[in-house]
Design goal:
CATH class: Mainly Alpha
Number of helices: 2
CATH topology: Helix Hairpins
Order of helices and strands: HH
CATH architecture: Orthogonal Bundle
Helix content: 55-70%
Largest sheet: none
Distance between the termini: 51 Å
Shape: elongated
Structural class: mainly alpha
Radius of gyration: 18 Å
Strand content: under 5%
Number of domains: 1
Length: 80
């Protein structure tokens, strides 16, 4: 099995969107659909890993600045 190159987060999301569009068209074979689905699963894992890494970096930066807890984002909160 050939080693695949991981895409950065933005490229992976764009590729996922493209895969979804192709699958939604419905004019591809079952085998091709399965290949696209498998690619989508791998891209989703890459995205999840990138988001986890970003969260870890944020936590490290917060700890370095003396803030130890993350606070859930609330778009309705106008306090700043």
């Amino acid at each position: 099995m050939a080693k695949r190159k991981k895409l950065d987060y933005e490229a992976a999301v764009a590729e996922l969107e493209s895969l979804v569009e192709r699958l939604e068209q419905g004019d591809i074979s079952l085998e091709e659909s399965l290949k696209l689905y498998e690619s989508g699963v791998l891209l989703t894992r890459d995205c999840q890993e990138a988001l986890q890494n970003a969260e870890q970096k944020v936590q490290m930066l917060l700890q370095q600045s003396g803030q130890t807890n993350l606070v859930d984002f609330d778009p309705n909160n106008t306090d700043s």
